[in-house]
Amino acid sequence: VQLVESGGGLVQPGGSLRLSCAASGFAFSSSHMSWYRQTPGKERELVATIRSTGIIRGYADSVRGRFTISRDNAKNTVYLQMNSLKPEDTAVYYCNASSVYWGQGTQVIVSS
Question: What pLDDT sits at residue 20?
């Protein structure tokens, strides 16, 4: 099983980033997928989850209205579109499959 995140980086407040997570080695199309984030000294926080059908299960209150999770089952990829970014969105963002498998994470820094 592999989950490979990409798309992180440094962005100014108010900017946007699109994270991608390329999956392989398991039945992606029948798996629910999630994005989590973590900052030093804090627990990993669930950001958003999307069902295998593409129905979005929900978002954390802190990102609702700014972030959008989506998936492309033909490409075995899940995305996180992040708009109106704030400094408090700074974290390592992780992709998760079926609450079991984890990616290595991608760093997002929101700073001027």
Answer: 98
